[in-house]
Fold each of these.
Amino acid sequence: MRDNLRRRLRAFLPVALIPNAVVVAVVVLVALCALMLTDSGFVPLAATVAQLWLAVNLAPVASDTAVLSQLPMLPALGVVWLVSHRVRVAVRHRISILDLTVLTGCVLLTPVVLALTATAMLLDARPVLPVEVPPLAVVLGRVLLLHLGALVIGMGPKLWRALARRFTVPPSVVDAVAPAVRFLLALAVAGLLLVLVSLVVHWRVLAELLDTFGGGTATAGLVGVSLLYLPDAAVAGAAVLVGSEFHLGGASVSLHDVTVVPLPPLPLLAAVPTSVPGWALVLIVIPPVLAGIVAHGYCRAGTRTWREMGLAGLWAGVFTVIVGALTGGTVGVYGSSGVAVILTAALVAVELAVVGAVVNTVTGILLQRRSVDGDTEPPTDAVDDGEMDDGAGPGVDGEGSDVDGTVTGEGSPGETVDEEDLIAAGESDAPGPDSVDGPADGDADTAAVLAATGDESGHSVPESAADAEERGGDPVETGGTPAPEDPDEAVATGTPADPDEPETQGPERDARDASVETGTDPETGDRDPGQ
């Protein structure tokens, strides 16, 4: 048991260590550059590294006078990409339940250890530097939520479908995630475009704000910070489009009202309007249009049920709550900032579910009319060779087979799946180099089939004489070169029809040669009447 655990740790611990080590290295490099540019010395290096790591992982940072918990999302998205990519590589072949448990523990515990280390570094620096330790529960909660999201993304839809089959979860629960994610991404793009257009419209305000800093390093730093906050701006713009609001301290923005108060001197905030034009309410049709496009793509292959469209809306609402919680927080003396999370999530879920249900109904009617107008009667007397509907037979990744390809349909009882069974997670079902346990017990039957058939294509491989003798049986003739197709050619050349037939020696061969020369039968001695 300990050996298995060690092997799993050797295989999966680097999945979590490598991306976090890259993040720590980048944070240390940025901290060194910042301290050298500001001529601050190296005394605050440890505290700077700790706060930068917390900020990159969306954990709050604090000084002795203020707390900043609304942090830029762009570096955090880089962390998510690094971790999810390593997880995707680790599970691209086949992985057991125990492997997945160890992988999850490594991915989640590694950032927790780093968060505790950063907190300890801040505690050590607090007596000599104006830093404060943020609430530990909030730190751990945000760090765990970020890395758990990276793990979920890295596992991929194929592994999640396999897990759903393993634990008898309806496949529609997993399939409904795809339209929800597409809808949220479309909303984020639309929200970002809204912010950029507003920046262009308010270019005079942006120019005045940049002129107050006189250019140089300060202006470049503010522009860089604004770029890091672009994903946050996209979330805020999407919330405004669906009919919710974004607030920053006492300021708030929606499609029907704007409340203006002094804002931080950040170039990106120049996009906040001072008033709402009357035509702005027209923009509220954008999210339903996007929901209709996404729902049409989801229902294009065939009509869905009301339950599936409701699940898609539910997933969209859940993801909105997670993203809204990570993008919101406190901005120092300005107070809380972010979107109205519950209202935004409810609007997103309802729009996708309702519009999706309408599109699904219309799509079903159109498909039914096409089937009536066209000749849709399929042939019943013959089936083309080599063609089979996906998931229609045993061993196919569909209904009637478990995660290891064992048929579990009626009349063919399936195997009992234990914790060592492998789950097909990647493009190939064969165990890859990252597999810890090697072939599972359930692969013995597959190996036996391959041994019996010779290779995966089904062509038989002849058994050698040595193999037959090892089994205790007689050597098996494997056959030789095929005989010539023309028998006259064989007689004319004197070549036996079967090259493996032993050559005749002695009197029998002399008699046969004589019969060929005289035209007599070698057995009866009668002459051929034709000669």
Amino acid sequence: MRSRYHHSSLLAAALSHNIKHTFIHYLCLQSDLIYTNSHNGEKNSHRRTENIPNLLIVNWTQNEVGSFPPGKKITIVFVIGGPGSGKGTQCSMIVKHFGFTHLSAGDLLREEAKSDTEQGMMVKNLMHEGKLVPSELIVKLLLKAMLQSGNDKFLVDGFPRNEENRQAYDKIIGIEPELVLFIDCSKEEMERRILNRNQGRDDDNIDTVRRRFEVFQESTLPVVQHYEKTGKLRRVDGAKSADAVFEDVKAIFVQLNTQANQVSSVSRAQSNPFKRFLDLFCGCFGTQEATN
């Protein structure tokens, strides 16, 4: 057994300049995890990543990433669909026609998994096993990418995947999506597409694909139902060709642009005191003419 003195020493050392790795080591001992110190080059493929606390995963490798300026209008659209439903293809077309920045939660995680960090290796293991990555980490990766883009219109692809994702998004970013685009496609069609695309991705083998389908049905469909109840959901048939699907998608975004322009015009008019005075003056003058 490890002595209390050993644990106390670790906590004391956590107050020094090496706080990050020492504190992780202490928590791993408490949780009976296997800790890998990348500075010493030690590797262990049997780490029990599923038990690492979410707060630890997010905070021991990332500082706060910042936030949007107060009052800045940010447009966010979630794009949801099963694996192989064609989300990425539709997002590329939307970006080309409507000027959004496309952020794929999956791509951000795969990029993180390539990094030579404890967090990157943890993400890689979870994805290979077909398990979900902690929500706080995904949201902070999304927020960081948004702030770095310089844009104010975002397509968030493959997110939220479950209620925990949605709640973490509300807590950390808190900007209500303008709409949620759901690309509806059958399991058989999605499986056929994934197995035919042959992109060499680690998470495209048949067993992992089927686990991803199960996770989608159990965790993501309730999110779809939530947004349907709130009136935010827009559903398109993803079984059609990519061009045919985009015709439906384009109509949705044209309507979104029209509504945004109308709101912007009203806001500009309300923020212009001289314009309000003219409207009031003309209104009064028109009333007098009608009376005479």
Amino acid sequence: MVKTRKKWKTVVFEQPLTDHCPILLSIDCAALSTNVSNSKKVVLNYEGINSLLLKETWNDIYLAGDANIAAELFTKKLLEIININKYFIDVRKKYRPLKPWITRGVVKSIVKRDKLHKQVKKSDSKESARKHYLTYRNTCNKIIKDLKKQYYQEQLVKYNKNIRETWKIVKDVCSISSKKGDPQVLLNIICNSPIDSLNVVNTHFASVGGILANNIMSKLNISEHELALKAKLNSTPLHSMAFLPTDPVEKSARHTLLTVESEGIYVLKMTVSSNKQFKATASIEMAAPSGYLSAAIWPLLPFFGVMCGVYIVLCFGWLLVCSLQWRDLLRIQYWIGGVALLGLIESSTYYAVYSAINSSGPRLGPALQRVVGTGVLWGILGGINAWLRLHHKANDSNRDLLLSEVPLSLLDSAICWWVFVSLAHTMRTLQLRRNGKKYGWTRRTGT
């Protein structure tokens, strides 16, 4: 029997004259790659380093006019002294780390673990020795697993944008060896026409994914649904997309083809190819489990809900106080009640708007930026006009006030024109789509 780690091939020659067939064995003579850093150990001669440091005069460092130059000279001199007083020794084979995440200290722990195991296998070993071995073995295995996990995590982060290196790491973790398939299966196809040959080849490559998936499921002895439930999707990175099996809840609720677990910018493209005429309907919903509001806006929904409750309590309390003191009420107390009622109306309006958006989705779409920009511009011009009105004296010239009112009036006219044009366009679209209910409601609202 010949044991080797090198590549080998055997050939058996058929011999018609005798029943003995000669065998040819070929062994690759290429040397296996060995890690020199694991087979050698650096040893420093500290006494030689100490003697050279004592003999050094350091004049060039004292004469240096710049601190950076002096530090560079000092570092260079130390490296020269260390290189002179270092040498390599061979590490014994059993103490050489086999994997990059295994240190020499871990190798020594593995050797000690194996020695303890041999001692425990003896019949005269005590129970205390067995407990000591089990504790040491579990601790050693845990350290090895943690080092391996930490090493591969660092490698994945390091080669995050390199797909080739990432796949190498995945294959190393899963112990997948790249075996080239035999191409004779596709080369020996015998068909009547080139089209049939191409169909056979296309069928082979189109079914590779399904065959691999079935082999994985058969090896793991688990179904696709159970395997998908074990997948942890809480820490999915951005710009990632996956087609997952649909659970029974989704099947009963809606036909979901794709679920995106993270926020981001996505391009969705649907292509339909068929010779027959048919009608396809696709619905895209960008909603979170809490609703359609984004994470930045969602806190406003409970805030205005709480404010509605606060204003309701305040209004009822103020109404109760006013009813008890109705004989001594002043005019300012009516204004206080009006302000509280106005705050209640404002909070309830905002709460209704955010609740409607959260339940049915936003309706502005691309016009959101234009509406926000117009509102900010109107607020700035209105604030300037209000400030000039407050600081304007009756006897002074009203030129600045007039100049501030002109752009505000033009902006008001532009907003009115924009609203009526958009309303007319919406009514025309609803009329073309023959949506009578929405058309009538929009017409009554506009008039």
Amino acid sequence: MFCDSCGSFKPSQGLQQGCPLSPYLFVLCIGRVAHSIKLVVQSGRWNGFRMGRRGPQLSHLFFADDLILFSEASLLHVGVIQDTLGSFCAASGKTISNVKSTIFFSLNVLPETRDCIATNLNFSVVTDMGKYFGVPIVHSRVSKNTYVPLVEKVIGTEDFDDDVVKRFAAILPPSPYAKEDKLVWGLSKDGRFSIKSALSFLKGNISHSVNPFWQVIWSWASPERIRTFLWLSYHGRILTNVQQVHRRMSSDPSCALCGEAREDNFHTLRDCPNAKQVWLGPVPQCLWSVFFSGDIRTRIEANLSGTFGRENCDWHLVFGVAIWYIWKWQNECIFAGLDIPSTPIALIMKRVSNFVQAASLSRSTVLGPCSDEIQISWSPPLVNWVKLNTDGSVIADSSSAVGLQLAWQFGFRQLVAEVDNMATVNAILGTSSDLSHHGHLADSIRDLLAKDWRVQLRHNYREANVCADHLAHMAHFLP
């Protein structure tokens, strides 16, 4: 495609068969034909076929490479059609195939007019336009007989796969109690959208690219504020002077304590003289060269996963607490004018000891699950009442709520229905509609319960529903 318009040109060589540009060019050309016809119709020179007294006017139909034109049967319209198609042929270099072109007249056109129009257009006259995909193009009122040839052609074919036919035949018809289809959220049990399910879905899709060390940080046993600070440090997001310059909050990236040119994460938490003085105590001298090298992520991973400090301490706890207090003390020194403690290691070790004791106390005071022993047995219904105990089994070709339907058909109007699934009871007794895959079952059961009878739906333990479970198990082996 060129940016500037060029002069007229005449195509000389067509595209080869199978060229990928062919369908695109064909669509462009057909679109131009439709545009030309539309302009002529809007000018009032072309009267198309009006579909009904107040219906729209139809001037042309395009089916792939098949074109059908509609117009008034007059010599004036013959000239308009010839001019429109002639302009397109002159621009595209194509010609109309008179052999493949036919003309169809309605019954109220005079024979003399038919012959005159056919002679001018040089098209052959037909009384039947044939079929399109097995359906007659021109027909009277649509009835069953209209599609008889198409049905016979489909039935007569021998290309159907027997397995496919059997699978279609095995599909159960829709239940008469089924409601209209609804849009549901397929990633939750109740069919309702939740932020948790959406995040779980996104996490599952990107789990291959997530650094597993994030789990180490968030499962680290310490106060939440220190875990959050570790995450920010690992992500390079603590608000150092370099970060402030990057966010256009400041113009000076140097350290306010030592005057170093750049106060980044490394400098603040490890290389600043105030921070370095803290690390020289707990880190053995033989590991100084390793500890004070590498990028921030590598150092945090190594210190939270490995051992750099003394053998008699939990180094991952000491490291996390230490970088938190280094950051805290430096901010207090800059913004509050306070001095860094003279014995920082002793204070850090004391805080680590407090965290360990608190975590140990929390684990030891967790109460175990309490349970009460109760006697479970089946109880008979009250006088003039009938009890229905149900199990999860159903007849293969049955609809939902078979037990309730039988009770209604037998004329029982005071019924106690017991189910050993609490989730089922809650779903049926709930006020909101269940949007899950089985929500329509709960809706159909609610419709049955709303009839003119008294039904008490209760939950019962599985041990009290042994008889129903045993009978349902036996029914699986019945012929």
